[in-house]
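Q: Give me the 3D complex with MTE.
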Amino acid sequence: MTASAIPRGSGATAWAPETVVADPYNAQTPSAALAESVTPVGAFFVRDHFGVPQTTPRRWRLRIGGAVAAPYGIGYDELLAMPRRELDVVLECAGNGRSLMTPRPPGLPWEQRAVGCAHFAGVPFRLLAGRARVEPEAVEFVFAGADSGTVHGRPAAFERSLPLAVALHPDTLVATHMNGEPLAPEHGAPVRLVVPGRYAVADVKWLVGALAVTQPFTGFFQAEEYVYVASRGTPDGPVTTVRVKSLITAPEPDSAVRRGRETPVRGRAWSGSGVPVRRVEVRAEYGEEEGGGDAGWHDAVLGAATGPYAWNSWSYRWTPERPGRYRLLARATDEHGHIQPPRAPWNAHGYGCNPVASVELVVV
Ligand SMILES: Nc1nc2c(c(=O)[nH]1)N[C@H]1C(S)=C(S)[C@@H](COP(=O)(O)O)O[C@H]1N2
Ligand SMILES: [Mo]
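A: Here is the predicted complex, encoded as structure tokens.
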């Protein structure tokens, strides 16, 4: 299918995410959809811990409370009437790429496609918090979803906190729309949080609570899951900023390309916290050996991103000279000089996996 034939919005009959676990539903973005700069809703990866709760816009309310002078609740229509902001944002699950780690940590066996980029619209949370008048001793906001289940044999909701400065950043959105349409049930309808530049565990779906707290939150999804443990070079603690990463979207793995013919190599690259990608490099290794053949790194051409939190496309024209097996590698560097490491940076839960991208293929 050509890119122009890909439907936008949620009426995407041509797409279905690839199921990783059926219940609760977890699925990754199909490879072909990564060619689009905005991932169609019908193709967008889904990460659910407890399943989709029953919520409707009519019954929905967000309660803002805790260490605030004026706690209150807001309904959907009132939210829609507030000043809005629109941003293209890459969402990436912190566990994306986990299946590349050895030994493979426990958790969903994501390949590298628990990622997508969507156009979100919503109200900056700071406007809502402003009305509640946050007390000076507040240090974080705890955001709660309407979904719940069992954790360690006890009932638990999905809750995750953000430091005040991140929660009150003008780009942290209480989002109602994704790609121009009201949020789909699996993506948090009617209202979710979107925190650009952070791993998507921060983007609490089916958002119903925002509680200012005076001590750092230590709930299950804050202090037990979605934390780096036993990682090299990174202090243990909650996953935060999305690490610089690239994907190769063409050619496909194990495809055959012709010797002497120009072959387009394409992909996507992104980094966290609104830090732009500065550079993507490509390298072609020949044969079984690592570093075989003309193994230099060559600059790819970077396409423009549609905003500070969107991803870039990139492309490189490769003309293979010899028949045989090749490994194409790609690595991105961001404006802060962060670069993808050669190997998956191991940690006990398998988060932040951003090694150099690679695709093996054969030249005939
Ligand atoms: N309420 C709630 N919010 C949630 C989750 C969840 O299970 N419940 N999963 C989180 C995780 S880990 C990720 S990666 C993103 C996935 O967002 P998506 O399903 O819209 O792609 O939602 C986050 N928000
Ligand atoms: Mo996630």
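A quick observation: The CA atoms of residues 176 and 191 lie 5 Å apart.
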